[in-house]
Design goal:
The complex is a heterodimer. Chain A is of the alpha+beta class. Helices cover 43% and strands 23% of the residues of chain A. Chain A has a single domain, classed as Beta-Lactamase. By secondary structure, chain B is an alpha+beta fold. Chain B contains 27 helices and 51 strands. Classes of the chains: A alpha+beta, B alpha+beta. At the A-B interface, helix 1, strand 3, strand 6, helix 2 and helix 3 of A face helix 12, helix 15, strand 6, helix 16 and helix 20 of B. Chain B: It comes from Dichomitus squalens.
Amino acid sequence: MPPQLKLNAVAFVSPQNHPILIRTFAQGQDELKYHYIAHTSLDVIDERIAAALASKSTDCYLNLLYTMEDVAVYGYITPLKVKIIIALALTDSVVRDADVITIFRALHTAYRQAVANPFLKVNAPIDGYNDHATLLQAGNSKWRAFRKRVDDIGKAVGAVGSAT
Amino acid sequence: MNSYPPELLVQLAPVMFVAGLEVPPPHQPQTPASASAHAPPPKTPTTPAQQTQRQDPFNVLSTRLRDALLAQRKVAIWQPDKSKTFQVVLVDKDVPFPPRKMLRPDEPGHSSSHSPLSPLTPSSPLHPDGLIAPIWIRKHTTLVPSVFVLFMRIYESPPPLPGQEQNEKEREAEERRRDTELAAEIAQRKKSTNERNIKLTAVLMASRRMLDDPTLDARLTFIRRQSGLDPRAALFVLSPVSQAEIGDFVRSLQEALYEPALEYYTNHSKRVRRKRNRHSQASVYQMPISPLASAGIARPLRPEGWTVRYEYKMACFAEFRGEDQVALKHYQDAYSTLIIMFGSTAILPPRTKRWAEAKVLADCITVKIVKLYLYNNEHALALSHQNGHMRKFADFSRGWGIGEETFEFWSWLARQHRVFAELLEQGTRSTLKIPSAYPPPAPSAATMAAQVLEATQMGLDTMRVLGLNPNQALQHPGFYYYMAARCTERRRERFLSALESDGEPQQSNAPGFVNEKKVDHLTIALELYTRAYELFKKWSPQQGNNPGRLTLWIAYRIAQTYHDSGKFDMAVRFFERIARTYRRESWQSLLHPLLSQWYKCAQQLGDVDLSVRLLVEMLAYGTNASPEDPDALQDDLLAVLQSTVPSATDEPLVIDLSESKSLLSTSVVFWEPEVDVGVLAPVQIHLSSLPHVSLSSVSFTSLAIHFNSDVPSVIVKHVQADPDTKIASVQRVDIGEINVSPAPAEPQEVVSVLRWGRGSTIVLAGSVASDLPMHLSVSKLVLTIKERSWWIEVPIVPEASRPDDSLMAPKWLCTVDPPQYLPMRREDHTGVRVRYRSHRIHVSISHNGPAYIGEDFPVEIDVTNTDDRELDVTVDVLLQPTEIDEAVNYIAMDDQRSTSLIKTISCGSLAPGTSILKKLVLTNTGGAGERVIDISVQSESHASNTVASTPTSSTTPTTPSHPPLVDRTETLRTIAVEAIHPIKVAHQATYRRPTRAQPGLADLETFEGVKKDEASAVEAIVTSTLTVVAPAGIEIESILLSRKNTDDATIVDCSADTDDFNGEWLSGDELSSRCRISVVPDEDEPDRAIPGAGEYEVRWRRISFDSAHGALATTTFPLPPLHPPSDGLVALLDAPTTAHLHQPIPLRLTVRNRHPSRSANVTVRLEPDAATDAFIVSGLRHGRMPILLPGAEENITWNLIPVECGLVRVPSIKVLDRRSAVQISQQTEQGIAGQGPPVQEGDEVRIVDVRWEARREAEEDGVGKGALPAVKTFKANDVFVLVLP
């Protein structure tokens, strides 16, 4: 039986390492912990990016970043350097890379759709805004669709794992 | 790791006992051993005895040997080195071994007695049911060796002195006696080692001289036989040698002894295996009832226990032998049996001494197994065992009542993590490499295919290939230290909760709990965190001084632990460092708990300044603020302010929040991007509080607005309003007009209510004006809070205070009620540029176009100062480069002349209302077309310059970044001048053949000098028509042909020399001039154009529309190049123009062969013309002319006597070239062209009437006919003569 993946948290981090959106799905857990995990993952991601540059790899998937306490942290970097970090509940079983990549792809798509929202810039000055601000704005609590999509993915991961 | 017996953890290696290397103390030189050692070295008279003693080579040798043997191996847990080294233990020569059995062999019952350590021996610590004790390992590592090396001195006789040969016999006897003693000593030792199968090796130390002694071999054989040593690898001889050679010796000694050592341990293993087999075969094991064991509750060891014991022993012996795989197998067997034992409370009742021992043993075996896996780089297996161990015992613990809710459990778990971390740390210090999960080994197509194949064959196992068990990914030891620290924290939590429910006395008095009370959990956690911190730092990629985020996290934990343990000052130090990164990366979620913790520390420390600082920062972030209780933070702040006094009261406490979020989000908006000097620029400053934080009770006393440069600051003072009035969400405050003046001005003061509620905004509206050009912006806003003795200043930099993640354009408040805004979508809304009013300068440019090519064309620039100031005016003119062919144009103004740019033509100072006229002269050459001129008129105000420069230099001398304040306006004009030719010229050239006789072929003159071939000279007549196209007409002063005769062309005469063209000519007028040129075509290149031999120079003036005459201009028109046509065979007929009746006239025909190569065969026939018998002809009627060679000519002359008056035609003459006819007739003769056209007599040669001849240029023959219809060629038939009576 394939291992049942349980998504504990998802974090989107901007290229300048500012948090865009952090969602936690684990019930009754300290949400702050996942903020810390997202933040500390950036260290490992930086390391991985350097390694990827050295080996001229263009892979978005950064593999297992680290395990700590009860979570395994995986990283993904979009071509535009937005980092996506997920924390899976740690079980003593093999996690297939293909499964993790599928989750990342879904999250990336959700993010892309959120950033494509033209209303993000509706109040922006004509020439003064930067794209970075747009990215951060996408995670603002005002825009609920992004959160909903991410939450749906979180739910779907658990559901798929148990169904198969 | 220190919590486990070290014996159970260290890496085992074969043990070697070394005896006989004791160095005698230097103060007792006369011990027997040293005496014997003392004797042999030759005493040199120069060396004092004491020094000899110290430098005794054998002492040195002993010391070095000891060092070499001891230094080669350190007792350590991580020792994967597989070189054949021994664990060396230095012992006395006669060290006893522990007894193998309780009873000596000679005592009765020896065979049934057991080892003193066996559980079956009542006096053993393991009696009756212990598994294995560390003392057993210690026995094998320190008390019993696998090999015994005995260092001895061999006796050496003093060197025979001369004349003492007779002592030879005595000496030999002495040697023999000593050797026997030595052998006896060795034999004694040999006896005890043989009992235990221990290899004994003797190393005899002898001087170098001794090695060369011929008797040595015999003596050695004697000693070995006497002592009963093995024949192989049991006797070595060593002389004092250098350090390096000692190393070699030690190595070879060990290599020689390694085999016996392995044999020793193998024998042990075999013995233990036999015992184990005996055990497992015995279905019912008879408990050997020991009389002492029957008492009490202790039960004898169960079979499982014996299995564990034997497996463990075998594992240890395998480890001694360096057989890691075998050891691993036995350890695993021991472990699994141990797990079975734990599974049953009957076998191992929990919370007993044996149970605790077994637990320690299980932990230690786990360490061994993990270590052995890691030696082999089996990271996943190692981790899987480690995790499995922790999981299994976690399960057991629940059953034992020490589950996850107890501090015991967490203490144990922390220890597991810590031991693992320590093992990894030791490993990484030597050989262990932590694998990196990234970049993953790039799967090639082949491996992918192989994986897919495997997938289909092996099913589930494929997941191992396509993924990774995150639980089995080895990480650096920092992670495990961190885990240990976390577990320790949990342990503390459990302990504290146990402490709270301290109701049950039996629990509080339990020994574990009493022990736990003594434990300082926080110190342990701190130590673990610190270790983790250091390791994270070590393993993080070094990025300058930027601390890694992982280390920051640990640091935060450390700070928290410090906080928990009451070391607030340490915690504050950590918080300060951590906050820096979190602020920079704007991870507010991390910053909030940190700030509150920090604040708590500051409170505990009693640092009021820091508390206030942190509270203000927390207010800015809205930390811990909730929409339900927006006043919480400000209440805290107020409480602090009212209850404490600052550290310094005479100066303000400046809270600089530039690194973090500012207290109020601000935006400065100027309505316009640019204004003129002296004009008011409207500005609004918005200050808003966070939507969930109220600042209503914080009493801001004033708000200072600081502009950049000299603008006086504005201070908004707070006036106490009615405290009950609700704070409006938007409040507009007028700060009036602010004027920037050179003189330093006092700050303006405005009063208003400075209170912010939840998410409320105060808009300060005003306007700024400056008399000087500058960039105006708001540099900072300073909020001042004065409460009791507190004086706090919070500076806010407006640009930085706008959250950069907001995509909201700044807004301009239009109306307050209801608030309506206008978005300002400009980028530069934060400042306004003040610039000088541009000068009113009127520039008009006039010229009478079009310009004529070749003339100096005047352009007038009229600059009028319509301003009210006196202005200095300068003019720059730029002539744009053109792409017209051969156009070289000049502009000139005043005394400057250039092809492109004339700079800084000063027009002087213009008073208001005056104007100046500048004349620009444009000279064009080349083709017609547009010339583009840029004219820039710069005006500079003197008056404002002096005013502006003095104050700026005096008041702000240190601002070099200011651009020079020059009040300058530039007016640009661009004109395009059409340039045309004033006169157009057209040339028409015709050519005539010379009529005079040609020099003969053989004429010597032909060959003389450079003179051209006169024979080929042609006369060209060039007709030039000049058409005036200048629209206003021109006045021509003269037209001259300037001659430039060459060898090829010579002007013979010209009509312009005599004609006078002087006068005014209007557009469309044409003038004509003819000139005759003698042209000698080049024989070699007949097609080459011959340059015209001169040019017409037309001197003219422009006539303007107002009839004024311009400057004299000269235009030249060169004569066209000439192309004289080439010639073939030609007949020239020359007849006089007029004749008188009955007077004979000559009619001369010249046949000239101008063909370059062919000769001509010509016949001439005078055709009698019946119709015109106007002449009587005398001469040749029909005849053949002599053959004409190329270049030759022949004349025939007829005499004509006119017999009729009037214009009569001369008889027609036909000249035939027979050359082609000859060819054709030859061809017909050969019968080739029989049916061709009728054979002609020959080609008719053209007859040219030289009186009329005018040939056009060869290439114009086809096209020029219509252009010059007057020129005709006549045929000979049409030669007329006017006959007069």
